[in-house]
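Thread amino acids onto this structure.
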């Protein structure tokens, strides 16, 4: 049993809609439904009555919700205490960011800050989008970095969480390059020809991006999911080994392109332009963050280069 299953269940109980709860949880509706079913299998009883609209909790579901609320509250409180004890002493920044952003964007971004901020002690925590949102909401980080697309937004209250666009990236299909530089696999061939795909879990942000691209493809090829991971770096290693096509951020494959190890495949319709955003909680009054935030717009164009 996973904590995220309980969080999913409580979101469903609150919103009484599978589609709305899935949006709030930043997961596809099919993936959300599977996780609710997995929780029901673990409990050993139906927690949701799906026979009517809106869906309602069963007696077992109401009983489980009472326990779930208390358990999660205790877990969150304990985690907050532990994280507080691990915070950097004195004045510093704690940053939550997706693994790809932490590896390929933040080092340059931090180095591009005005000189007076470069001496500030900084801790970067590579973490998935859902957990980084929780860190921001619970006050366990000052800044959160995440990818954004207009059709695939993060559900953060704009009245409480302010953001700035600080960079851009492109999610693009790549695969191992042949000796002549051409891609080993094609996305423009027959739909009857199976093409191995190195995919993401549906609950991850890149998983949502890939699902969006496939959903809007005019002539989707015969893709076969060969491997699945939340980590773009792992999928990159598999692509380098010739295991299939992976949709990877351009920022993560610059060196591999330069060495001729990877090649792009498919046309522009298979690419997704993404914005890199930094978020802060406006209810948290931190003089350091406020001072830094006021100077971030001047570094935005530099960060996009």
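Threaded sequence (305 positions):
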């Amino acid at each position: 049993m996973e904590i995220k299953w309980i969080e999913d269940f409580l979101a469903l109980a609150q919103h009484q809609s599978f589609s709305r709860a899935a949006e709030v949880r930043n997961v596809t509706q099919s993936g959300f439904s599977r996780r609710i079913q997995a929780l029901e299998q673990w409990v050993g009883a139906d927690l949701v009555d799906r026979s009517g609209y809106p869906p309602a909790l069963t007696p077992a579901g109401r009983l489980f919700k009472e326990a779930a609320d208390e358990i999660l509250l205790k877990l969150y409180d304990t985690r907050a205490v532990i994280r507080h004890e691990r915070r950097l002493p004195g004045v510093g920044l704690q940053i939550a960011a997706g693994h790809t952003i932490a590896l390929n964007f933040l080092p340059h971004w931090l180095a591009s800050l005005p000189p007076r901020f470069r001496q500030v002690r900084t801790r970067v925590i590579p973490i998935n989008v859902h957990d980084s949102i929780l860190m921001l909401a619970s006050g366990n980080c000052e800044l959160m970095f995440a990818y954004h697309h207009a059709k695939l937004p993060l559900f953060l209250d704009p009245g409480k969480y302010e953001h700035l666009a600080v960079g851009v990236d492109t999610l693009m299909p790549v695969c191992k390059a042949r000796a002549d530089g051409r891609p080993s696999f094609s996305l423009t061939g027959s739909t009857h020809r199976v093409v191995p795909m190195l995919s993401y879990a549906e609950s991850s942000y890149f998983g949502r991006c890939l699902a969006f691209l496939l959903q809007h493809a005019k002539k989707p090829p015969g893709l076969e999911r060969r491997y699945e991971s939340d980590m773009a770096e792992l999928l990159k290693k598999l692509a380098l080994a010739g295991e299939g096509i992976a949709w990877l951020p351009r920022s993560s494959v610059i060196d591999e392109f330069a060495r001729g190890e990877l090649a792009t495949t498919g046309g522009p319709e298979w690419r997704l332009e993404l914005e890199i955003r930094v978020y802060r909680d406006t209810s948290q009054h931190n003089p350091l963050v406020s001072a830094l935030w006021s100077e971030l717009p001047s570094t935005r164009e530099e960060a996009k280069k």
